[in-house]
Amino acid sequence: MKLSEVVRIVNGTVLSGAENLDKEVLLGFSSDLMSDVLTLLADDILLITGLSNNQAIRTAEMSDISHILFVRNKFPTKTMLDLANEHGITIITTPFSMFRASGLLFEQGLEPVY
Amino acid sequence: MQTVYQVRQGDFANAGKISSTVKGVLKQLNLAPEHIKRIVVALYEAEVNVVAHSYGGFIQCTFASDKITIYVHDEGPGIPDVTLAMTEGYSTASAEVREMGFGAGMGLSNMRKNCDLMHIESAQDKPTDITMVFNLQQGTQHG
Hints:
heterodimer, A: alpha/beta, six-stranded mixed sheet, 34% helix, B: alpha+beta, five-stranded antiparallel sheet
């Protein structure tokens, strides 16, 4: 699905990487545990997380993950947004919980990694 | 080519900066993306480990045409039982480390899975030295 679809489905707000909204994302992975994210082999993943700190952005950078959805209105800091912009990472926030956001995206066709 | 980077104890704000810098170097060296990913994932776990668990140390990266070698040294306090520490799920991480999204006892095994050769030397109240080798030849198996 297109990233713009993701934004629509989760009632999201785009905080960085608005130019990427036409890009396709195939897989979703929900986790607050960055070591778990670092085990993923696939690229082009939407990372759905409640962990709003620098390490979420760094983990995405190392794992070649280009899109992060922060749940429960976790707003990234300016440092995080600067890092995301530097590495071309799209940041979206949603008021929904991780469970609800994941469920809605799964229902609409975003595939799980496992 | 060899580069050395200092890592400061508890410097969570900057954890990942070294891995990011090295990723840039690896891209410039035109390494295949799958090699870059496994090297930087292992390096990032190592970097977070030094920040989270040690008194500080350094990371030395040696770039050759056939392999990348990463040597991680810290000033202690050491790992009393390396075998136990390598067990997935075993962790001594503080609440602060867990809040950063780490500390689930996956770091060392993530490092081992991503490199072709890993050697750890450590003991209680001693420095920890870890060497990771990443072969770059085609068809090299790792894990």
